[in-house]
């Protein structure tokens, strides 16, 4: 791992305490009493190449196995977007870089892309089709919290293919989705507009300044 400045200053951390730093270059650094390292424990996250690490809860969280809200660090590869999907519960995502969030407006029947800059938090209602994307050429860090569903649960990320398959089955009276065909149609529409977009000239300049600021902030 490259040389890094320990986050949290020079104070000796008590056992069990962890301090995280999320620099502008898309890295994630964890400092514990034992030293400084990149966080471990990442799991596959919806698509190949995407990763997530739970802070609260785990991949098996579900209404039948609750652990309150889940809270995790996600790493999105450069210039990529997740397969459009919908979550069974509401979702909060904090972008630590230059991101975009494609959303499908069911009322207007159209896709909408929201550009996000570092430090922007977005709330996504339950069952709203969406796709988070990375507009930058470096990894994007996101902090994501959702209510009651871990990434192993079938209702965590319902894709168009999932919705089509489940729409062909007899409906479970306890299922959170009452119209899978409509959801599948919306997800397919979002798939056709799933370009994460690119950074603007001003954002590219701001990104360079953020990296310079991070170097200046680091203790010498």
Describe this structure in words.
Helix 1 runs antiparallel to helix 2 (180-191). The chain has 220 residues and is α+β, with helices and mostly antiparallel strands. The chain is flat and about 60 Å long. The chain is built from three helices and twelve strands. It has helices at 160-167, 180-191, 201-217, and strands spanning 19-21, 29-32, 35-37, 43-45, 47-56, 69-76, 91-95, 99-105, 110-116, 120-124, 130-134, 140-147.
If classified by CATH, what would the architecture be?
Sandwich
Q: Fraction of residues in helices?
A: 10-25%
Q: What is the number of strand segments?
A: 12
Tell me, what's the shape?
flat
Main β-sheet: number of strands, strand sense, barrel status?
A: 6 strands, antiparallel
Number of helices: 3
InterPro entries: RmlC-like_jellyroll, RmlC_Cupin_sf
Please specify the SSE layout and strand pairing:
Blueprint lengths: L18 E3 L7 E4 L2 E3 L5 E3 L1 E10 L12 E8 L14 E5 L3 E7 L4 E7 L3 E5 L5 E5 L5 E8 L12 H8 L12 H12 L9 H17 L3
Antiparallel strand pairs: 1-2, 2-3, 4-5, 5-6, 6-12, 7-10, 7-12, 8-9, 8-11
Helix pairs in contact: 1-2
């Amino acid at each position: 791992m490259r040389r890094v400045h320990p986050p949290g200053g020079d104070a000796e951390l008590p056992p069990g305490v962890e301090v995280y730093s999320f620099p502008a270059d898309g890295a994630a650094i964890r400092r514990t009493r034992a030293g400084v390292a990149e966080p471990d424990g990442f799991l596959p996250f919806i698509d190949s190449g995407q990763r997530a690490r739970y802070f609260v809860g785990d991949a098996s969280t579900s209404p039948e196995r609750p652990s309150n809200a889940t809270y995790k660090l996600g790493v999105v590869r450069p210039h990529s977007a997740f397969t459009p999907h919908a979550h069974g519960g509401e979702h909060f995502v904090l972008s630590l870089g230059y991101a975009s969030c494609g959303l499908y407006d069911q009322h207007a029947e159209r896709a909408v892309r929201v550009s996000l800059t570092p430090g922007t938090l977005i709330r996504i209602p339950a069952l709203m089709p969406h796709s988070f994307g990375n507009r930058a050429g470096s990894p994007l860090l996101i902090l994501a919290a959702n209510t009651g569903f871990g990434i192993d649960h079938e209702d965590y990320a319902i894709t168009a293919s999932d919705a089509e398959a489940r729409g062909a089955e007899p409906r479970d009276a306890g299922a959170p989705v009452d119209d899978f065909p409509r959801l599948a149609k919306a997800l397919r529409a979002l798939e056709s507009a799933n370009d994460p977009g690119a950074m603007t000239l001003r954002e590219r300049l701001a990104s360079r300044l953020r990296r310079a600021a991070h170097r200046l902030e680091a203790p010498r």
